[in-house]
Structures are given as structure tokens and as C-alpha cells.
Amino acid sequence: MSLLDYLVLFGTLVGIAAYGIWRTRGAHSLSTYFKGDQTTRWTIIGISVMATQASAITFMSTPGQGYESGLGFIQNYFGMPLALIIVAAVFLPLYRRLNVYTAYEFLGRRFDAKTRLLGAALFLLQRGLAAGITIYAPAIVLSTVFGWRLDATIVLSGLLVIVYTVMGGSHAVTLTQKYQLALIFGGMVLAFIVLLARLPAGLTLTDAFTVAGGFRKLEAVNFSLDVHQRYTFWSGLLGGLFLSLSYFGTDQSQVQRYLHGASLRESRLGLMFNAVCKIPMQFFILLLGALVFVFYQFEQPPVFFNEVAWTAQADRAAGARLRALKADFAAVHTEKQQAIHAWLDAQHAGNPQAAAAARDAAVAAQAHSEAIRAETKSVLHAADPRTSTNDSDYVFITFVIDHLPHGVIGLLVAVIFAAALSSKASELNALGATTTIDFYRHVVKRDASDAHYLAASKWFTAFWGLVALAFALFAHLVENLIQAVNILGSVFYGVVLGLFLVAFFLRRVGGTAVFWAAAAGQILVFGLYFALNIGYLWYNFIGCAACVLFSLILQSVIGSRGAPAPVTASS
Amino acid sequence: MKASPRPPDPPPTPVADAATGLPWLRSWRAVYLFVLGCFALWVVLLVIFGRLFA
To answer: Is the pTM for the entire model greater than 0.90?
Structure first.
């Protein structure tokens, strides 16, 4: 990166953080610290919800997904519109009517104190660890690519977000997210325009789509009922509904965002904004990846996109084999390029038979290229088992560094950091709120002043920020860390959603029944996790179903002794 | 003639919450149907886009 890139990077990130601190300076109350001044309009709520969900990985991995697998990943978001409608129609009115700070307060009102603490504890455990990953994941990729020190990257970006989140609270998070998301969209649109400009002369957008379509990168919707296929319309609709309902309805990092709204109307419209815009947004990012794939059909791509890992092994024992594979890859690429040119020429000449034959040759060459890439990954992994063979996170950043002009590179690295900061800020704010409201104020110190709780909130937010930093710094000691945290999330998410579904839809179930049902459901999930070998996403469903089913059984056994307390705004 | 005592004000109704404030979608049911319609439209457009360049 050049001096101009560093100026753009630090100027935008520090500038946005400083603006957030300046705008939210002065006295706060506990309410404004965690819920803002509750004058926020739906546009800002929508942006804040979107920025919280879109982490740095979204902007590094999603184009990589588009590059490797095409648009099919978009089906993962098909359940989200319906989930957001359910949250807006059922969850949100109750949260607002009870004027809660956290989603778990609602569990306390609906059931009892122990159920509230159980829900809050499960959230703190899961989100506390995930907050470390939010910073670690982009830092490991960017430090590898640019040769930065990993610990310095983690500490600098971590401290920046801690400072403005602690000082400005939820209002600062929302304010900064507005500009961070503008930066993110601006940067991605700019990358898209530059990418189109860098396609070979004479290649139209229709030609680019033809090439992407010929390699099956534009197949977005798959109606297959085969459960072994990773992305289908049905798994996206059902699984996505389930996951989105958990995330938007019960995860405090999202609940806190939409509780900012000036009214129920503003919060609802903010959620509906996401329900309408999320799918086109993901389509755009995936399409960017598919077009990067087209770009690399005319430009020699690296055989392995984590070039630092490849270079490290190229000078060692496996070097001769790696260089031979690289030479084969380059030869196949030239052959493929010729086939693609013949394919497009035949297409322009109106000769479908010749176009089909040339396309088949290009597809065969692509399969050969993929086989060489797979062998390269095997050689790298055999030489150093710590090398991750998944290089899709490096596709977009490699394209940015190698092919975009200076200044734009700094802007797009700023985009990745802005995404990391915006989602981490929401997480820290939510962790601080849950610790203060559900544990400290509810269990430790019940009758202190507002100023006391405000000070405690700042300390707790800083504490979670430092925990996340420490976890990120030592994350490299744990193998497959991101997957480990995803597994951890899936193991807990289902039971938490089960608690809320019982609260909303099974009025006759009381606190004692649901508490023990959740505990039993969690034990069952742990047991199944160690006994079975199934995809971890299934534990979301199993945990939820177990919690709901056990609640009904236990309630029928307990009878009226565990009858629910009425939920009222004043209770 | 003395004015009769004014009846107590009714509890405030959350007018701003009940109304969507949108010109064409006046009820929340209409907003939710619009969102589902948009989802269906995205799916149809994605299918057409994929088939167009298959």
C-alpha cells in the first residue's frame, strides 16, 4: 500500500470514530447510553441493523463465494424477509410495550428471574467469544497480505472501537454505523465500476455474464429437494427463517439496534427496510465475485490466492512440485483463454454449434485448472498442516491489491475495517447492556443511582472490549477457530430461540417448566454434539425443538404450580 | 349556563405506531404483503437472470 492508501485508510476510520465521539460528547443517562435518545428514524435504524449484520467477513468472503460457487449462496438469505416480518409483528411490539433495555428482560417479565439470567448468560457466553473473531478474522487476512504485525492490527483496530463505543454508547454506535455503511457501499460500488473498466476491451457486460453463466456462476436458485446439496431454495427458506429469527429476534446486538427507534413505526420500518434490501445487497456482492471470476479468465490468477503461504513453501522441500503445478496452471489458463475467445467470437457470429463446442472446451479446461488448484492445496497442507486450504477469503483482497489503483486500495481496506468496527461496536454495546441490566442491576446492586449504572455500563463495555481483544490476540492457538465459534453459536442459539418462542406462543407454559426444559434441551444438544456426526447448523433446530417440546411436557406434569405470570408494561 | 365538567381525557393512543405513514401502504398487513411480494419478485428475477445466461 502507498502513502495515499494509508492516508485514506486512517483518515476515514479515525475520522468517523472521532465524529461519533464528538457528536455524543457530554452527559448521558443510562437510557440514552443504551437506547440512544429514541428519536431515531427508520432509515437510520435500517442502516444500523444492516451494518451490525455485515461484518468484515461479509466483504472478504462473500465475493470469494461468488468467485468459487457463484450466486447460489444468496439462498441462505431467503428466510430473512419472513423472519423479519415475524420479529416486527410479534417480538418488537412486546419489547417496546415493556420498555426493556435487553431482550432477556422480557424473559424475566414473562417467566421469572432464573429464566432471564439463563437467556442472558447464554448470550454473553456465545457473543463474548464471537466478538473476538469479529476483529481477528479480518486482521489475520489483512496482516498476511500486507505483512503487517497481527497483534498490532488487532490492538489498534480493537482499541479504536472500544474508545468510541465506551465514550458514546449506543448513540455513537448508530451514528458511526451510518457513515461506515456509506463508506462500505461507496467502496463496493467503486470496486464494481473499476472491475468493469478493467475487463478486456471489446468485452461487453452481456459477454461477461455469458462467460459467468457458461461456468454456472449465475445459477442463483436451486429448487432441488436433495438435502445433501448445500444451498437450495428450501434449505435457505427454512434454515434461513430459523437462523434469522434467532439472530434478529433474540440476539441483543440486533435487538438493541431497533429499540433505538423513535416509535414502533420507525423500528418496524427499519426492519422492513432490511427485509427488502438484504437480498439485492447480497446479490450485488456475490455478482462482484462472479465478475472477478470472469476478470481472471482473461488475466492470469494466482494458483493459490493466499500467495504468502504459497511463497513460504516455494523455497522449501515442496518448492519444485509447487512451481511445476504453477507452470501447469498457467498453461491450462492460456488454453482456456483461447477457448473463451473462440466461444465469444462464435456467439457474436451467430454460430451456436461452434459456441457450444468452444464453451465445452473452456469448461473442461476450467475443471483441469480446479484439479491443479486442489493438488496445490494438498501439497501446501502436507508441507505445513497449519496452512488453511481455503483461500476464498483472499480472492477479493488479492484482486484489489493487484489490479486497483492506489487510493482505491486504501478505501477498500477501510471498507473491510469499517465493517469489522461497525459489527463489533454493536456487539460490545450489547454485551455491556446485558451485563449491566440483566446481571449487575438485577442481581448485584439493585438500588443505585442512574449515574452509578452509567459508569458501571462503561466499565463493562470496556471489559468486554478487552476480553474480545485478548481472545483475538490468542485466537491463533486454537485450530479452526472460526468454525469453533460457529459451532458454539449453533449449540446455544437453538435453546435461546426456544425460550423466546415458548414465551411468545405458548402462553400456558410457566417459568419453572421452560427453565428446566431449556437446561435439559441444552444438555441434550451437548450430548448429541459429541455422539453424532451431523452438520452443526442442525443443532439450532434440535435445541429449539427440544426446548419447546420439553416445556410442554414439563408444564403438563407441573400443572398450575408453574403457571405463567401476566406480562404487563408495569410488571 | 355553567359548562358541564369535562370528561377525563382518554388514554393516549399510539397513533404514530398504528399508522405506517406510507402513502400507498396504509396498514401493516399491506407492508408485510409488500415485503413478501418483493421477496417473490427477487426470486423470480434471480431465476430469470440465471436462465438467461445458462
So the answer is: no
Domain that holds residue B31: 26-54
pLDDT score for A27: 55
In a domain, B52, yes or no: yes
> What percent of chain A stands above pLDDT 70?
95
Question: Is the confidence at residue A347, as pLDDT, over 70?
Answer: yes
Position A212 pLDDT exceeds 90? yes
pLDDT tier at B50 (50, 70, 90 boundaries)? very high
Q: How many CB pairs under 8 A join A and B?
A: 72
Name the minimum distance, in Å, from the CA of B51 to any CA of chain A.
Answer: 8
**B21 contact A CB<8A:** yes
Q: Does B50 touch chain A (CB under 8 A)?
A: yes
Q: Tell whether B1 is covered by a domain.
A: no
Range with the lowest mean pLDDT among A130-144, A220-234, A323-337, A354-368? A130-144
**A interface mutation test: which of B42, B44, B45, B48 has the most A CBs within 10 A?**
B42
**Measured between alpha carbons, how far is A426 from A83 in angstroms, rounded to an integer?**
20
Provide ipTM, 2 decimals.
Answer: 0.84
Q: For residue B11, is it within any domain? A: no
Whole-angstrom distance, CA of residue A62 vs CA of residue A50? 15
* CA of residue A233 relative to chain centroid, distance: 20
Which pLDDT score is estimated for A426?
83
Q: Tell me the CA distances in angstroms from A3 to A27, A194, A386, A398, A415, one per residue in order.
A: 38, 21, 33, 19, 17
- Chain B residue numbers touching A84 (CB-CB < 8 A): 35
pLDDT tens digits, A440-460: 998 888 888 888 988 898 899
Cross-chain residue pair B43–A221, CB shorter than 8 Å: yes
Closest residue in A to B19 (Cα) is A265
Chain A interface includes B54 (CB < 8 A): yes
Min Cα distance B25 → chain A (Å) is: 12
Say whether pLDDT at A494 is over 90: no
User: What pLDDT is stored for residue A535 in this prediction?
Assistant: 67
Q: How many domains does chain B have?
A: 1
Contact B50 A265 (CB under 8 A): no
> Which residues of A fall below an 8 Å CB-CB distance to B?
71, 74, 78, 81-82, 84-85, 88-89, 209-210, 212-214, 216, 218-221, 233, 263-265, 268-269, 272, 275-276, 279-280, 283
Nearest CA in chain A to B32: A85
Say how far apart CA B44 and CA A300 lie, in whole Å: 35
Q: Are A113 and A438 in contact (CB under 8 A)?
A: no
A85 pLDDT more than 90: yes
In a domain, B18, yes or no: no
**What pLDDT was estimated at residue B10?**
44
User: String of b and e for A466-504 (b: at least 16 CB within 10 Å)?
Assistant: ebbbebbbebeeeeebbeebeeebbbbbbbbbbbbbbbe
Cell triple for A184: 462500505
CB contact at 8 A, A366 and A294: no
List phi, psi (to 5°) of A260. -65, -20
